[in-house]
Amino acid sequence: MSNPPTAAFVVVANRLPVDRVTLPGGRTAWRTSPGGLVSALKPVLQRNEGAWIGWHGAPAEELEPFVDDGLELVPVPLTHSEVEEYYEGFSNGTLWPLYHDVVAPPEFHREWWEAYVRVNRRFAQRAADVAERGGVVWVQDYQLQLVPAMLREMRPDLRIGFFLHIPFPPTELFQQMPWRRQILEGLLGADLVGFQHQGASQNFVRLVRQRVGHKTHRDTVYLPDGRLVTAGSFPISIDAESFEKLARDPATEQRADEIREELGAPKHVLLGIDRLDYTKGLRQRLRAFGELLAEGSIDLDDAVFVQVATPSRERVDQYKVLRDDIDRLVGRINGDVGRIGRVPITYLHSSYPKAEMAALYRAADIMVVTPLRDGMNLVAKEYVACRYDDQGALVLSEFAGAADELKQAYRVNPYDINGMKATLLQAMESPDREKSRRMRSMRKYVSEHDIDRWAKSFLDRLAGSETHHDKHPRP
Ligand code: G6P
């Protein structure tokens, strides 16, 4: 591979913002990568000149650095077995379920861990090649927790930040991890370690004290070599302005009208948009809706549910099982309560461009976001940003990070199906005045706390944080 470009600001994430996919017939194409991380970070990098290091989504392929949509992209290759062991294995079969309250059982395999270490080192090396002297490197998410310490060893001149997009598990669960100390030490290579939630940040500092034995005070860790590491919470957000602009586009409004017509113009369109992931609470949500119809609490003529489930991690066993379960559940509900010309659940196993998502948000009276555990959930914020008319209602799980900020949502405990049914009914029956009061204040919050504010607050703190203490550490 030729020499990569150099940059003073470098983002390192498992994925590049674009994904190389093979189409039926064998041709390859680029498409936007799935997930909230990419949609949040892309505008940040577009506004701060820099380079983005990441995997391009296809195995066993070495690609040269390239420019896409104004972004300098530096691909990192993964072999077939690394995709299996590092990405599908340790990242998504071990860390993902462990960090999400073990809603699925995590698997611990030594070969997966070894691949994780090897691939983290490759990402760190790439960052060391690309970052200019004294530059800033911002490492993202659970797939790359060892990169900060590896990179610091290669390039002590850099400022290194790390941000975890997903929850950080409670101490009791984190302790299960056979390589818990290595992971904590990996993160401690950063000058600033950011989390979605204050509790996660405190948890991390406590674990460092207990497991690694470093001195800590409030959000600061004092390392024996004189370095300081700060932890903090930085709840992520969206490019609210661009979503609102898209929502106000007449073409979007026209598409939203079409969608409502095609659904039979019911009184209530309920909408879910998620990656097809077992953390998202799809089963519970669909069951609640199905029961409301079956018992006659809502009329089939009055309400339909549109569930978009974006394909995700399709070769991981638990995701295969989930897909079959959801197929069966949707089929059963539609078979039991549907009738000719009236399908209660429109289920779309597909991903859609941003414009179509905005039209769906505009078409939906009730947005149903009910994860069992979620670091933030940006879909909830996107919906709010698109409701410039202050109409619509957001039903939101109390286990999504977004619930800390979107306080006027209709809150649910997704494990409580009866409670969820009652809240869905409440949202459907609320007077317009009540709904718009709630929406207005959530919209104000999201437009004031957008992605630029998030990035600025993290990067300012990273630039301004003390990185060393005197010989005698406090306290
Ligand atoms: C979540 C994670 C991201 C990840 C995304 C999509 O948002 O926090 O790191 O990129 O899901 O998942 P995938 O496995 O397709 O990258």
**Can you give the helix content as a percent range?**
40-55%
Share in β-strands: 15-25%
How does the helix and strand content classify structurally? Answer: alpha/beta
- Distinct ligands, ions and cofactors found in the model: 6-O-phosphono-alpha-D-glucopyranose
Strand order of the largest sheet: 5-6-4-1-7-8-9-12-11-10
Q: Compute the separation of the termini in Å.
A: 49 Å
Largest sheet: 10 strands, mixed
Total strands: the figure is: 18
Report the radius of gyration as a whole number of Å. 23 Å
Number of helices: 16
Poorly predicted runs of 5 or more residues: none
The dominant shape is globular
Mean pLDDT: 96
Can you describe this structure?
The chain is α/β, with parallel strands linked by helices and 475 residues long. Helix content is 44%, strand content 20%. It contains 16 helices and 18 strands. It has helices at 36-47, 80-99, 110-130, 147-154, 171-174, 180-187, 198-212, 240-248, 250-262, 282-294, 317-337, 354-363, 378-386, 417-429, 432-448, 451-464, and strands spanning 7-15, 18-22, 28-32, 51-55, 66-68, 71-75, 131-140, 159-163, 192-195, 215-217, 220-222, 228-233, 268-275, 303-310, 345-348, 366-369, 393-397, 410-412. Strands 5-6-4-1-7-8-9-12-11-10 form a 10-stranded mixed beta sheet, with helices on both faces. It has a 6-stranded parallel beta sheet with strand order 15-14-13-16-17-18, with helices on both faces. Helix 3 packs across helix 4 (147-154), helix 6 crosses helix 7 (198-212) and helix 9 packs across helix 12 (354-363). The chain is globular, with a radius of gyration of 23 Å. 6-O-phosphono-alpha-D-glucopyranose binds at residues 14-15, 34-37, 141, 165-166, 312-313.
